[in-house]
Design a protein that fits this description.
Blueprint lengths: L1 H18 L25 H12 L5 H25 L8 H11 L12 H16 L18 H24 L10 H10 L11 H18 L14 H23 L35 H25 L1 H6 L3 H12 L22 H25 L2
Helix pairs in contact: 4-5, 5-6, 5-8, 5-10, 6-7, 6-9, 6-10, 7-8, 9-10, 9-13, 10-12, 10-13, 12-13
């Protein structure tokens, strides 16, 4: 009886097996319609699609971390190289050759003497263009790395920009005569407004766009200097107009010198323009400059280098356009000595960083060296202003 039951069960299993659908195998041995060894597809939205794409590229696990590390290292190296290239200061140029080249481009006949003020304006124009067209362009308002991580070159740019603004303002205040008494030149007035734009503006109206418009107005004024009669521009070489600008330059050099000196001597008393100590409350009768934070030492140093770079060119151009008047006031050699002192601020830096050692310590103090050159130039400007004042 039991044998009959077992035989019946086997017959039922055989019949059920015959009714089941058979799976055919593909050439690779996997059942047709199946997935074989393929991993399940992640359907978790964008994250899932990214994960699946990485799997198809074989970037999973340890390999993904290795590739990510190499990519990050390459990006950092590229940013470092760009920072080094963009940190190179522009080369100096000859102001007379620059003025002659601009005059030829504007159709000036070779061999004909350039109009008065042409060299100064052409130099100012070249300095402003260099600010925007140097390696990396204008970096002071960049919001992305590596420019946003750099501070030395933006500080250098600010020093140059400060002197460009001062010179344009001097032209506006009388050095560039307008169409009538007390009326400024329209191009100089427009250029002054453009260069007064914040140096770090980047949204809607960027600093570069405003400065480029200011350069256009300066070039229009330069071209009008060659015209006589209506529509032409004028340039004044009076001693009072030059003294007004030099006074502004002298103040900026004195301020920079004191800021550089504060990197070591925080108890240095402040002095007024005549050299007398200015008393201050709570400081035993003297005003004390706060010590420069270590993070700002190199910024002030490169701001001073940018100031010196701009002044070397602009003062040299001024010595050309104002040469007869300066010789008459016996001040030409004094101005040349000032230019020589400022040229000392442009000497190459052999150290990879700005050193801030003590006065007589083992390591150099670049801030004090820079301050000494600016102080000598500041003293020379005071003497120059005194000569101009006595001869009026």
């Amino acid at each position: 009886m039991s044998e009959e039951i077992e035989v019946g069960d086997e017959n039922e299993r055989a019949s059920s097996t015959e009714h089941e659908p058979r799976q055919t195998e593909t050439d690779d041995g996997n059942p047709a319609g199946g997935t074989g060894d393929q991993e399940p597809v992640d359907s978790g939205g964008d994250t899932g699609r990214i994960r699946n794409a990485l799997k198809r590229l074989g970037l999973t696990g340890r390999r993904l971390w290795v590739v990510s590390g190499i990519t990050l290292a390459c990006v950092l190296v590229l940013m470092g190289l760009l920072s080094l290239i963009w940190s190179r200061e522009p080369a100096h140029f000859d102001v007379k050759s620059n003025a002659e080249q601009m005059a030829r481009r504007h159709g000036h006949e070779p061999g004909v003497e350039l109009p008065r003020g042409y060299t100064t304006t052409a130099t100012l124009l070249r300095v402003a263009r260099t600010l925007l067209n140097k390696g990396g362009g204008y970096l002071g308002n960049d919001m992305l790395p590596p420019a946003s991580l750099m501070d030395d070159m933006p500080a250098w740019e600010f020093g140059v920009l400060t002197q460009v603004r001062a010179c344009v303002r001097a032209l506006h205040e009388g050095m560039a005569g307008g169409p009538g008494p007390g009326v400024p030149d329209p191009d100089i007035e427009a250029a002054m407004r453009k260069f007064d734009m914040d140096h770090d503006s980047w949204l809607f109206s960027s600093s570069e766009s405003a400065y480029r418009e200011g350069i256009v107005h300066l070039e229009q004024y330069l071209q009008r200097l060659e015209k006589d009669g209506p529509g032409g521009a004028r340039f004044s070489d009076r001693a009072e107009d030059l003294a007004r600008w030099l006074t502004r330059v002298e103040k900026s050099l004195g301020t920079l010198s004191r800021r550089l000196g504060a990197s070591v001597d925080p108890d240095r008393p402040a002095m007024d323009q005549a050299g007398a100590i200015s008393p201050g409350p709570g400081t035993s009768g003297r005003t004390v400059y706060p010590r420069t934070p270590w993070s700002q030492i190199d910024d002030i140093f490169y701001e001073a280098r940018g100031t010196g770079w701009a002044l070397v060119h602009i003062l040299t151009a001024v010595s050309v356009d104002f040469e007869p008047m300066l010789a008459q006031h016996q001040a030409l050699e004094t101005l040349r000595q000032v230019i020589h002192d400022i040229e000392g601020t442009q000497r190459p830096i052999s150290s990879p960083m700005v050193m801030n050692g003590s006065e007589f310590g083992l390591f150099a103090n670049h801030s004090l060296v820079m301050s000494s050159y600016l102080s000598r130039a500041d003293t020379g400007l005071i003497q120059l202003l005194s000569r101009l004042e006595r001869q009026r």
